[in-house]
Amino acid sequence: VAGLGNYGMRGTRHSVGMEVLDRMARQLAVAEGWRVDRRCCADVALATAQGLELVLLKPRRFMNLNGLSVASAAEIYSLGPEDIYLVHDDLDKALGKVAIKLGGSARGHNGVQSCISALHSNEMTRLRVGIGRP
């Protein structure tokens, strides 16, 4: 599960994917388990939920380069694009509304496009979190 955003810019609308992962880590009792993984240039926490092993990933890059971290982590953890969930902001959704998107285009989102390019696939499931338009 990759929370897309601009690393170091906590609390901004475009980093909502990382905020969602922080919340997930707290709910899964692994919030103290975040560590820097230089191999994929990301903060990583490992968790288990309902018998599934999860890799929570917050890229340490700007949004338009998030895909490099996601692709590196996919290789390290032997994951295919179909195993990856991207959590990201969506300007076209009202604030707080969420939607699941199964594959398809990036719809203009630079972080998602970066992941599609780096993984050579658009099969990732996306959790789109509405931030609304200013």
From TrEMBL:
Keyword tRNA-binding attached: yes
Keywords from the named record: Hydrolase, RNA-binding, tRNA-binding
Alphabetical list of Gene3D superfamilies matching this protein: Peptidyl-tRNA hydrolase (3.40.50.1470)
InterPro entries in the record: Pept_tRNA_hydro, Pept_tRNA_hydro_sf
A GO molecular function held by the record: tRNA binding
Pfam family, one: Pept_tRNA_hydro
Keyword Transmembrane belongs to the record: no
Protein name listed in UniProt: PTH hydrolase
Gene: Ptrh1
